[in-house]
Write a structure and sequence with these properties.
Elements: H1 12-55
Length: 61
C-alpha cells in the first residue's frame, strides 16, 4: 500500500533550516513594514498641512 503523501528526504535539520529561513523573511518584512507605516503617516500629515494651508489662502505649491 502506497502512502498518500511522501515527504521525501525531509529530515529535522532540513525542516529547521526551512523554519529559520521563514523566520528571517518575516523579521525583515516586519522591519520594512514598520518603516513603510512611518512614511505613510508622514505623507498623510504633509498632505493635510498643505491642504489646510491652501484652504487658508496660502499658495504653497
Amino acid at each position: 500500500m502506497l502512502p498518500l503523501l511522501q515527504l521525501g528526504s525531509l529530515s529535522p535539520p532540513a525542516i529547521l533550516v526551512g523554519l529559520l529561513a521563514i523566520a528571517v523573511v518575516l523579521l525583515v518584512g516586519r522591519l520594512v513594514m514598520k518603516v513603510a507605516w512611518r512614511l505613510v503617516i508622514i505623507a498623510i500629515i504633509a498632505v493635510a498641512v498643505l491642504w489646510i494651508l491652501g484652504m487658508l489662502g496660502f499658495q504653497v505649491i
